[in-house]
Amino acid sequence: MNECKLNPIEAYINRDSRIKPACPFCGLFIERPTEQNLRRPIEMPVGSCICGAVYAYDATGHNLGAAFSEALVFACNMDWDLAWNLLPGEDYLEELVKNYDIECNYIIPVGVYRGKRISGALYFIRIHNDIQEVTGPGVQKKLKHAGSTVASQSASVRKNKKVNIHKKEIEVLVSNYQLESLLQMAAQDNSIIRYLQRMLYTGDELLRLKTADTLGQVCAVIAQHEPGAVSRLLQRLFTSITDAGYGASSWGAIDAIGEIIAGSPDILSGYIPALFQILKKEDSNFGPTVLRAIALIARDRPDLITKPFSYFIRFARTDEPQTRGNAVWLIKCLASTGSRPGANEAKAELTAITGDHRFIHIYAQGVLEKKNIGQLAARAIKKLE
Questions:
Q1: How far apart, in whole angstroms, are the C-alpha atoms of residue 265 and residue 66?
Q2: What's the mean pLDDT in 72-83?
Q3: Cβ neighbours around 201 below 10 Å, total
Q4: CATH architecture designation of domain 167-384
Q5: Are strands 121-127 and 359-364 parallel, antiparallel or unpaired?
Q6: I want to staple 57 with a disulfide (CB 3.0 to 4.6 A). Which of 17, 45, 49, 92 is the partner?
Q7: Mean pLDDT of all residues in 198-225
Q8: Which residue from 188, 194, 146 is spatially nearest to 167, judged by alpha carbons?
Q9: Residues of CATH 1.25.10.10 domain(s) within the chain?
Q10: Residue 114 reports pLDDT greater than 80
Q11: For residue 37, what pLDDT band results from cuts at 50, 70 and 90?
């Protein structure tokens, strides 16, 4: 890493152009943030101050929501459940430091240095001492074992070979559920995920679900070489949901999140708690869709869904058919774990639903299948036994 050294003339003209970065909470100088080697790829470099504050680096200054999430979760030692249950002001403080240049580890107040625009930002989180006593040792251990490679503004895991990608061709391939060509494209060029993301907002339910399915399989290919690109996509999808106020403009985002995590569970399981945060929103219209997304993950990796059966039974009690049906399907997917608490209660509740002869649609491999809710409940009971 080259240090930012001024020649004598430049030093005279720009005498105040550089400031050593300091923690906004304690005023001590901080070290350059570093990239971490964690189970869920932290997209942004992070660091910590002696006072316990943690900071995440956003190279563009335009992804501050993601920087906040990265800093908060890292400050909680990657405990997502803890992070999303903390309250700002009450459990943690936050500050933003702008115009940070990671290349030389300086703040550039004027925003321009040697003809280069400096727009990076450091998002600081300082959780309160009682929580920090529990999470702090783990945070420091992760920082101590961080990779020796210092982060740069243009770090890349692999060279992304551009291929000719045509919107119409992708739409035809997805519509016909012809995935081989799409997976070959993904192996060479990450930009395919942008085209697929745009297709998520179609009003055609089957095409939307095919697109989400395709996106999950495409991201599984990309995650093997460049997990950060997939992490960025997940962050965009979650942001599209919150920015839209859980409205219809986020159609497809939840299904895509479920398919992407299901496609790369060992890498992306850290995002599962964020799905439960959406499910907790009482004003959300996405309840049945989130249940479906969680079921997609549980279908192959039920061990990653740690909630007891009782957590999902309450959704099966509702009279709305898609919510009830998806909850029953989810419970069926979870039933293979064996030791999950609440199995007897779940069987009793599901028995009362076996007389529900309404139908829901469950998507699988390019097809929307009609499923009888009562029959789904009977199969779930059989699994539980």
A1: 21
A2: 89
A3: 15
A4: Alpha Horseshoe (1.25)
A5: unpaired
A6: 45
A7: 92
A8: 194
A9: 167-384
A10: no
A11: low
Cα atoms in the 13 Å half-sphere on the side-chain side of 162: 2
pLDDT tens profile 299-346: 989 989 989 898 999 999 999 999 999 999 999 999 876 667 778 888
Give the span between the Cα atoms of 327 and 312, in whole angstroms: 6
Q: Are 305 and 331 in contact (CB under 8 A)?
A: no
Residue 230 CA to residue 217 CA, distance in Å, equals 11
Is the CB of residue 120 less than 8 Å from the CB of residue 101? Answer: yes
DSSP 8-state symbol, 34: B
C-alpha to C-alpha distances, 83 to 38, 74, 80, 141, 319, nearest whole angstrom: 17, 9, 5, 18, 33
For residue 81, the SS3 value is: helix
**117-134 tens-digit pLDDT:** 898 999 999 998 889 889
Please give the pLDDT value at position 146.
57
**Which parts of the chain are beta strand (E)?**
46-48, 54-58, 92-98, 100-101, 106-107, 112-113, 116-117, 121-127, 359-364, 367-372
Q: What are the distances in angstroms from CA 267 to CA 19, 154, 261?
A: 38, 22, 8
Counting every residue, how long is the chain?
385
- Pick from 37, 49, 41, 43: nearest CA to 75: 49
Q: Name the 3-class secondary structure at 361.
A: strand
CA 27 to chain centre: 32
How far apart are alpha carbons 211 and 209 in whole angstroms? 5
Q: What's the rounded Cα separation, in Å, for the pair 385 and 367? A: 29
Q: In the chain, count of helices (H) and strands (E)?
A: 17, 10
The predicted structure's pLDDT at residue 248: 47
CA dist., res. 133 & res. 127, Å (int): 10
Which has the closest alpha carbon to 330: 284, 373, 369? 373
- CA 124 – CA 120 distance, rounded (Å): 13
Give the separation between CA 78 and CA 271, rounded to whole angstroms.
Answer: 11
Instruction: Name which of 247, 250, 255, 242 is nearest 322 in CA terms.
Output: 255
Are the C-beta atoms of 381 and 309 separated by less than 8 Å? no
Provide the edge-to-edge strand list for the sheet that holds 92-98.
Answer: 46-48, 54-58, 121-127, 92-98
